[in-house]
Structure formats: structure tokens, C-alpha cells
Amino acid sequence: MKTFQQFEKAIENIPTTTSWYLADLGEARGKQELFTKQSPQKLKVLREHALIESAVSSNRIEGVTVNQKRVGTIVFGKRHLKDRNEEEVRCYRTALDWIHREGAKIPISEKTILKLHQMSRGEIWDAGKYKEKNVDIIEKLPGGRERVRFKTVEPSKTSAFMKTLIESWQDTLKEKSVHPLIALAAFNLDFLCIHPFRDGNGRVSRVILLLQCYFLGYEVGRYISLERLIEQNKERYYETLEQSSQAWHEGKHDPWPYINYLLYILKIAYQEFESRVGQMKSPRGAKTELIETAIASFEKEFAISDLEKACPGVSRDMIRLVLRNLQKSKKVECIGRGPGALWKKKGNISKRG
Asked: How far apart are CA 105 and CA 215, in angstroms?
């Protein structure tokens, strides 16, 4: 809302970095159809893996964690859930299912946003309802002290701010006053600053981001988890969000650090998508490819637990099998003993020989 109000005065200069991101994403979108015409079985594996990663990562960003061994059951199974954390992960998957199934058919509206909050929060008293009390962003400092990092919109004004935000999004797309991807990132920033719900704002912001990407024709989130990439770049997420939210209420904030962050996330998602589609040679070896891609991404030594975290839904036995095969080909080396032993790369893992 406040960001869109800045844009109403016309953007005189778009940062050079932003222009580069927009050019790269335009090219990636142009090649998107080529990659999505690849083997349906390969893409099915990527979709399933992205669904698991998204449900787990988006909740983990907010401190909600589950047992890695139960991830597959939580996301795809129908068995009884053990606790509230497992319920929240499955609820997020339910919201993702709706978005993946209906895609651009779902309107960006207040009704949709409330429904997404209700779906992602599950059986909790204020699911699908705006906050009733002030919910400020509090930072915990060393020694037990706290500070208000950002004062969100007060409850009495929340609904009006959300209506204005949605109208601004629609008007901007209709008038084409700014690039749609800039509008997408501006919406995400303003939504987080409004902070309309008591809890679950971050998670809802990410499913809306995915929905808006589909609306604009950027489909990479079906195959590569944007939530997982945000989690992997979590420090930058919080850093740019704080930078861009300063003086937001006065409309004097600088939105570009956060806008560029989200464009960066989309860019690396497309890079990973092209890489994975190119590397995956057969659906039968898809899980092997996912494990090898995860190993290739590690900069330092890693443990099996690190791979379980990077490849939710892949069994520990499968991970051990891949590691043994890579060890035989002298591409990895085990340094230590026991379940917590560390491994390190010795050769090129990114492409299968």
C-alpha cells in the first residue's frame, strides 16, 4: 500500500540491479515452456519434491519443525498427526494444493487471502480472521532485552489497508505503471508491513507470492520450492525486510532492497530449474539426482542429517546408498565414524558420469 503510493508518483529511476533481474527473469520465462515440455515423469518428481520442501521450509522459517522421518507421511499421508507442528505443515500443503490446482484462476482478493490464512492455519480459533490486538515485530536482544523492530498497522485499520493494497495491485497491473514483478514484490512488502493476522503472516505472504507468480505466468514455483530458497537465504530476507520497512508508515521507505531480494529468489529458482531438468536423465534416478544436487550445493563438510534436511521425503537408506556409490567413484569421502560422521566432496558431483 505505502509502496504502491510511492509508485503513483512515477518511478524516475529503477536501480540497475533491478533492471538486470527483470531482464534475466524475462528470458527465463521465455524459455519456461521449453523446459516444461520435458518428460512428464521428471517434472512430476520435481513437483512432489517442491511441494514437500515448500511445506516444510515455510513453516521452519517461522520456527515450526517436524521429525524428518515423518515428512512424507505428514505431507502426503492420511495418518493421524502427532502434534500442532505437524498439523501446520499439512495445512500449508493444503493451501499449496489449491494454488497448484487452480493457479491463475484464483483472484487476488481479500476473500482469497482470508481463505489462504484459514487453510494454512487449520483448526485454530482465529484462522481466516484479521488480528484483534496489536501485533508488533519484536526483536530479542542479548541479555533478555527486547526492542520493537517494526510497529505494524493497528487492528482497527487493517481491513481498510488490505482493501487499498489489493486495489493498488489491480490498478497497477491494469495501468501498467510499473513492471508486474516489481508490483508483485511491492505487494509482498506492503502485506508484511500491514501484518494483518495475529500469526501466520509470513506463511500467507509466501503462498500469495506463489499465487501471484502463477497469475503473471512465472511457473517455476511448481518445480522449485521458493520457500526453501527463502529459508536458505533467511538472513538476507530479514535484513532486506528491515531495511525496506523503515519509515514505511510515513511513505518514505526504500523498497528496493526487499524488491531485489525477491527478484533474486525467482532468478535462482529458474537457474536451479534449468539445471535440474538438464541433469535428470530418467525418472527412475530422480531421487539420486536430487541428493547429488544437494551434495553439490554444500560448500563445506556435511552430515547425513544435512542431506535429510535438504531432501525431505527421501529416506536415509536412499541417501546412504547414493553416498556409498559416490564414495566408490571417489567423489566423496567420509571423515569420521558413526551416524554423525561428516562427509566432504572430492570430485564433481553436479553431473552424473
From this structure: 8
How long is the chain? 353
The pairing of beta strand 342-345 with beta strand 146-150: unpaired
CA distance 343 to 345: 7
Longest dimension (CA), the chain: 64
Report d(CA 73, CA 82) in Å as an integer.
11
CA 320/CA 316 separation, integer angstroms: 6
State how far the Cα of 184 lies from the Cα of 168, in Å rounded to an integer: 11
pLDDT at site 33: 81
Neighbours of 224 (CB within 10 A): 25
Q: Hey, what domains does the chain have and what are their CATH numbers?
A: 2-279 (1.10.3290.10), 283-345 (1.10.10.10)
CA Rg value for the chain: 21
Q: How much is the pTM? A: 0.79
**Secondary structure percentages of the chain, helix, strand, coil, to 5:** 65, 5, 30
Q: Are 33 and 217 in contact (CB under 8 A)?
A: no
Per DSSP (E only), the strands in the chain are 137-140, 146-150, 302-303, 332-335, 342-345
* Least trusted range by pLDDT, from 57-61, 87-91, 110-114, 294-298: 294-298
Q: Which three cell numbers stand for residue 344?
A: 566432504
Considering only CA atoms, which of 198, 86, 184, 178 is closest in space to residue 136? 198
Q: Strands 342-345, 332-335: parallel, antiparallel or unpaired by DSSP? A: antiparallel
- Torsion angle (degrees, nearest 10) of CA 338, 343, 306, 44: -120
Give the Cα-Cα-Cα angle 153, 154, 159 (nearest 5 degrees): 80
Q: Residue 128 pLDDT more than 90?
A: yes
